[in-house]
């Protein structure tokens, strides 16, 4: 299957990963080892507000509409 080079990733999990990354980066100092990083990732994953996740799901229709309006190009998401 061909995939256009400018096609946006409409998968909301990408925004979840971004949120998780920002949350983990707020820990100072950085993790001392992989075990600590895993612990922080699990802690922060469980701490993401349900409203954030629901908002990602609710935004899917508008994401698709914008993607179509921009012929598969860049959207505001």
Automatic annotation (TrEMBL):
Listed name of the protein: Tc1-like transposase DDE domain-containing protein
Organism phylogeny: Eukaryota, Metazoa, Spiralia, Lophotrochozoa, Mollusca
One GO molecular-function entry: nucleic acid binding
Superkingdom of the source species: Eukaryota
Gene3D superfamilies xrefs: Ribonuclease H-like superfamily/Ribonuclease H
């Amino acid at each position: 299957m061909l995939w256009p080079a400018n096609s946006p990733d409409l998968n909301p999990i990408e925004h979840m990963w971004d949120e998780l990354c920002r949350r983990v980066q707020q820990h100072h100092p950085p993790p001392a080892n992989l075990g600590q990083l895993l612990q922080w990732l699990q802690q922060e994953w469980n701490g993401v507000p349900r409203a954030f996740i629901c908002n990602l799901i609710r935004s899917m229709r508008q994401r698709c509409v914008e993607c179509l309006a921009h012929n598969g190009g860049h959207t505001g998401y």
